[in-house]
Here is the input.
Amino acid sequence: MTWLITGGAGYIGAHVAKAMTGAGERVVVLDDFSTGVGERLPAAVTLVHGSASDRKVLDRVLTEHAVTGVVHLAAKKQVGESVEDPLLYYRENVSGLTVLLEAVVAAGVRRFLFSSSAAVYGVPDVDLITEETPCAPINPYGETKLAGEWLVRATGRAHGISTACLRYFNVAGAADPALADTGVFNVVPMFFDRLTRGEAPRIFGDGYPTPDGTCVRDYIHVADLAEAHLVVAGHLDKVPDGGDLTVNIGRGEGVSVRALAELVGEVTGLRTAPVVEPARPGDAARAVASAGRMAEELGWTARHGMREMVESAWAGWCLHHPEARTAP
Here is the structure.
């Protein structure tokens, strides 16, 4: 098959491209480089500079490269920004997806994997979040991901496209230091950034009903996430046209923010006690995936633990921030 990966030069996208090319798949990446880095990609990848919501570009790429499946990763992904500018998020994440699906239908593509998020669940009061847990997003980012799922499934049913919606939990780590997350938007690089600058890592709230009072989250190594895409892609080849799959991608293990901060201190050698800031509105006390569906229906489970995530992420951080090795 030939897979088009939108946003494939990003942190997650580059890992998916690496996994797919490593498995012998032909891969075309479409990226506007707003956050992507072309140098992350394997030499075997065909790279196209352009927007995933540009119909002319999409028609050309899907036809010229005889694309048979799409992995859609391109999206706006920052919760705070989505609250400040919901119109941008609905335009990019929903309207842009509409344009992409129209091009997919016109080109006769029959496989579509959608990058969704645990944000679709909102703040459920459950021990483990299953795929049947009611979705009640609390911010525009989560709303656009849920609307995207609805649109993907409906289009698949109407046009005979087999679809999958992958609900990612918190992604961390790197398969290779060169592929590491270079942004400072997720908790692990946020801790690294503060420590590298000689500042204490921040914890938002310590009065939650959890063992140590801080939020508990589920983390997935980005290499495991990329492998999960391969497994789901293979599954779609076995289901009838128009079939759909919705799965959580997590480990089913909760880690508190304070425990994560302690682990980061161990790995980096920069042991600075965290400072506690006021809790952020809308943060769930606990958000941990049930990973049972991926294990039972597709025979897949994550292989990497929390320490591997932090160690590999730190190696990548030091590669891109050499000053980190001499941090106070």
